[in-house]
Amino acid sequence: MLQNMITADNDVSVCSNCGKEDGDITNICNKCKMVKYCNAACKKKHRSKHKKKCNRRVAELHDEALFKQPPPKKDCPLCFLRIPSLESGSKYHLCCGQLVCSGCVHAVFTRAKGVSLCPFCRTPAFINDENITKRIEKQVQSKDPIAVYDLGCYYRDGFNGFPHDRKKALEHWHQAAELGNATGYNNIGWAYESGEGTEIDEKKANHYYELGAMTGNVNARYNLGINEGNAGNYDRALKHHMIAAAHGDTDSLKQVKQLFMDGYATKDDYTKALRSYQTYLGEVKSDQRDKAAAFDEMYRYY
Fold first, then answer.
1. What is the domain extent for residue 27?
2. Which of 66, 98, 121 is the last residue of a domain?
3. What is the dihedral of CA 196, 201, 205, 207, to 10 degrees?
4. What's the pLDDT tens digit per position in 111-163?
5. What is the pTM for the complete model shown?
6. Any domain includes 45
């Protein structure tokens, strides 16, 4: 009987509980997707036996997704170079809804002799709060994830004529995240970690940091690395910082070095992190971006 159960767990054509063979067994474990049953009754009866293996596989699947290299940002629509992973290396323009790299922003600013124009559509910069409000409301209505995220920041800071309202900020970050904005997830995580606009909840903070990291936010990845290190989970902390360093995060590169000095990482780990960091810099580097970074810290891309 034991052998039959072992076979059943590995053979998708056999019910994992009763061993019944049927080519049309489609009642699958909803969590791990590893085993099938001939009906709901068999699934319920087998639950206690399957629970440990199921939880282990669910954790494995979660970590596979969590520690997978996230996709890079899209290329700049003007110079066609990779948009830097850090928010400081690019600027979003409400007039046309385009995210443009710092190099192109600075180049147009220089050619216009200090007049702020959108590098993409050449629309003049904002004049007053009313103008800003009209433009951001237009982009929010079109469900632009960056605009929705920015509106949340305006509410958080009481900026550009919007009232200071942390709860509204959190609501907009949730909306932005649902639309695919990875930074929104990071800000939600920070809100739960710090208690800004909501109650402190470390479990929820970690959950949203993970969502942010998986969708490409470097700061969320760094935060996870720090939290794992503080909890003594140095292997997991190293994995997070290695990924963040490969996407240009200088602080994560420093953390990998510190883990190496403390004996929680190898020399090869630090060498790999340094090389991946340098590779990132090579991919996003341009003369225009260097000039932008020298002109203003907000244009820094590393």
1. 2-66
2. 66
3. -150
4. 888 778 899 999 887 767 778 888 999 999 999 999 999 999 999 999 888 99
5. 0.85
6. yes
